[in-house]
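Lecture notes, structural biology module. Today: joint structure prediction for complexes of two components.
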Amino acid sequence: MKSVIISIGDEVLIGQVVNTNAAWLGKELVAMGFPAGRIVTIPDNEKEILKEFRSAYKNYDIIAVTGGLGPTHDDITVKTVAKFFKSKYVLNEKVLKHVKNIFARRKIQMPAANIGQALVPDIAKVLENKTGTAPGLLIDKAGKVFCVMPGVPYEMKYISRTGFFPYLQKKFSSKKRNVIKQQTLHTIGIGESMLAEKLGDINKIVRKGNGYEVKLAFLPSNYEVRLRVTVSAVSEFIADKLLKETTGLIKTKAGNFIYSDSESSIEKTVGSLLKKKKLTISCAESCTGGLLTSKLTDISGSSGYVMDAIVGYANEAKQRLLGVKKETLKKYGAVSELTAIEMAEGIRKRSKTDIGLSTTGIAGPTGARPGKPVGLVWIGYSDKKISFAKKYIFTKDRLRNKDIMAKMALEVVRRQLTIDNYQ
Amino acid sequence: MKSVIISIGDEVLIGQVVNTNAAWLGKELVAMGFPAGRIVTIPDNEKEILKEFRSAYKNYDIIAVTGGLGPTHDDITVKTVAKFFKSKYVLNEKVLKHVKNIFARRKIQMPAANIGQALVPDIAKVLENKTGTAPGLLIDKAGKVFCVMPGVPYEMKYISRTGFFPYLQKKFSSKKRNVIKQQTLHTIGIGESMLAEKLGDINKIVRKGNGYEVKLAFLPSNYEVRLRVTVSAVSEFIADKLLKETTGLIKTKAGNFIYSDSESSIEKTVGSLLKKKKLTISCAESCTGGLLTSKLTDISGSSGYVMDAIVGYANEAKQRLLGVKKETLKKYGAVSELTAIEMAEGIRKRSKTDIGLSTTGIAGPTGARPGKPVGLVWIGYSDKKISFAKKYIFTKDRLRNKDIMAKMALEVVRRQLTIDNYQ
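The predicted structure, tokenised, for the full assembly:
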């Protein structure tokens, strides 16, 4: 059972609207076992629409169409559906009443243009839309399901959930189809290719057999890599088993680097760890300029473990607010191992928290010095037992640097709290 | 000149990634006069990719392809391009050197898999990618331009701006087409409908005539509204004139609320103002949790005007680090006008800066108290002459609140420094 998603509308083609509808439908369809083989966006143009409908009908079992159902002159999708199915185009009294009611409730006179929204191809089953004027239309012909919905995201979702998806599940429930399961493992601060090396023989992970398939995708972005495992199998039981086996194998190979297997962010993972271990944290930030603390406080409930933070951009502030020694700054500079350690210790002691975390580096694009390139960061960690700093070199881009430096600082805390002998 | 955008990647089909690349490319291509006639997303599958390439080559002049250029087994785009053009697949020394340099700079040994990224079809012109390992590939054949770029958004944008777009503009510069010009005016903290009222008669802005058209779009997002003016005209001269006229008219109507007409962020606008006026700033943050200072320090050169900042989540920290009076906290609470003012004054005096800026509020989703709903924020401002606080109520969502509260604090500074008698 393969599906195709067709989005109709000039506003998507010119980039005025980001096509979140397709992403949502893609996710839902794959979860039901009807993965989309293709997503297409085309203009509000009869010829293009007809061409796409023909191709979709030939190649796919389920055709999900969104957009072009509004009341204005440029909305031609329904008319074109009637033409494609060579169906009569009739006034549907139930839809007309629904549209009229919407205007009556808002105490607004219905514009004539809205009557057009009650005209539907008579071959179609009308799917109710309680969230707007345009109904969904479903046509089941030659074993294929064709569904047209409005482009407004919440209307499309409403019709999908109440009409389109239940229809699909009922119709295809007896057909034997593969169950698809996915899980994504998140890593940070380890390169894509190095991660691949750690995983070892890829054919022990990616494999195909009678009635099942296991796929692995590497999804990198700014020093984070997500590993997405997709399993397709004849039964839920086998799919679950394969998924658990595969993610288990990956974890034995690269477990220390995986901070989440449940789509949690690094700040959420660290927050949960601190909460569980009843630890508090404070931050002394230089190059991350507040972003590290901002990430920590993105989590609701973080006021329970995040105490205060100090952004000490200037050397003077590093001395006055954090107690970094003048000699340290003079001898090693602000971007150095010892400064990072003194910052972390300073904030920990002054804020009376269990952990002190610091960043000092060169976010860029300017500020590089001999031996200290843009992208260099020292991340300092301090608790009652140990203080240390780690060095990383990232990119030449200021915003990317701030983001990954802040995330890497959180990852340093995570590793320290979870890996034996990380230091 | 019609273009087509092809996105390659299973992650897009299953909805794990929203296709923002296509929206961005669609917007840029239409602005250059090469509107996309179609956007297609297909899987990492050779047969599907070849089929789409064939169809694209037949129907469009410009083919923009993104995705599938990574170093791992599931990245097959480049190989498939070589097959499609029946081109030899050769090692490009320049690309190899670039990839090696990236690893050398980070002092990491290059994994063998990355060598594969230097293999390119010999028919292709290599477009440099300073932001990552995979280069862009451009093939100009039979009057058509075919360009392949990585799917990572900032890499795709970098290659588009520095290689792909300049090539298109040069190649197609002689063709006659309408000139399209756009400018976007940014506002913050003023509602869409109130802004529309301020603009007055919309028909004086939106207009159409012989060979020209002026359009206006309201683009709202989380208490910011962007006004995008699009002008289409037969010549560059007329387009520029109309654009200047129209944005000028909007500025006379709503100028005080427009913080940027050049895609500058509010933090950039405020940073430039501080620099120009030779003023320094320090922040005392509670509900924004570091985000306000992080935004200020997003701007390169901000170390010249941002002194230190303190995130005082706990009442104790507000007293110890900022000098907020115990009685103030007791009588009015941490989220109050007086606390905001004392925080702003406290950080200004302790940091010896010209301006002190503070936020205290309830980011949510929990923490509401009678008379103090989630979304409430007091923004405090203090300089040598005046101290005051402003109250706003935003959303129920923590992350949206943090973002708009931080931006609104910057907007308070902007208005104070630019509007006569703002206080």
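Point to remember: The CA atoms of residues 169 and 361 of chain A lie 55 Å apart.
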